[in-house]
Specification:
Chain lengths: ~110, ~110
């Protein structure tokens, strides 16, 4: 069964609003979670590494004020897309590190900004 | 800077064929390489994980090989089925669980 739950799976919002995406590790504690973004017919690009109890580490070119990441507990990381614009429309996927195991990925969130 | 490339970008084969998907990476300093499957609009499903010290891994009809020195990995799918139709991604772990993904191969198996 799924070990990483991502919610919501789809969201449509109006330009200028903020959207929060949740990533939960279901039966293990994840000290590190990762957020990826995927453009249509493109591969996944790592946006940031989320560390429990500390600030996220963002990849070059990713606006930290635009994509707010909070990893408040060992089982939950959230990504908030602030003041969303149509160019933020994309597929966002999280993954969580489980010790001695391959990375587990969520099912992704398709964000559409109108 | 690590770059991961997959060839071909798209592939269409009749059911029953054996096929090979290719993945190449520019920096051989990797911890492991993982093959994933992604169905349209869905998340990723891990298929096979090869540690840097290993040469291959097998799971059912899938076999993945790794040649770290040449920066290559192949995913072999035996007796392909329509249900195998998906996008296949390879990814290399470079450090601290950071993965760099390839460009993907869109596979279509025709009934």
């Amino acid at each position: 069964g799924a070990v990483v739950s991502q919610h919501p799976s789809r969201v449509i919002c109006k330009s200028g609003t903020s959207v929060k995406i949740e990533c939960r590790s279901l039966d293990f504690q994840a000290t590190t979670m990762f957020w990826y973004r995927q453009f249509p017919k493109k591969s996944l690009m790592l946006m940031a590494t989320s560390n429990e109890g500390s600030k996220a580490t963002y990849e070059q070119g990713v606006e930290k004020d635009k994509f707010l990441i909070n990893h408040a507990s060992l089982t939950l990381s959230t990504l908030t897309v602030t003041s969303a614009h149509p160019e933020d429309s994309s597929f966002y996927i999280c993954s969580a590190r489980r010790i001695d195991s391959p990375l587990h990925f969520g099912n992704g969130t398709r964000l559409t900004v109108t | 800077k690590q770059e991961v490339t997959q060839i071909p970008a798209a592939l269409s084969v009749p059911e029953g064929e054996n096929l090979v998907l290719n993945c190449s990476f520019t920096d051989s300093a990797i911890y492991n390489l993982q093959w994933f499957r992604q169905d349209p609009g869905k998340g990723l499903t891990s298929l096979l994980l090869i540690q840097s010290s290993q040469r291959e891994q097998t799971s059912g009809r899938l076999n993945a090989s790794l040649d770290k020195s040449s920066g290559r990995s192949t995913l072999y799918i035996a007796a392909s089925q329509p249900g195998d139709s998906a996008t296949y991604l390879c990814a290399v772990r470079v450090r601290t669980y950071k993965y760099i993904f390839g460009t993907g191969t869109r596979l279509k198996v025709l009934a």
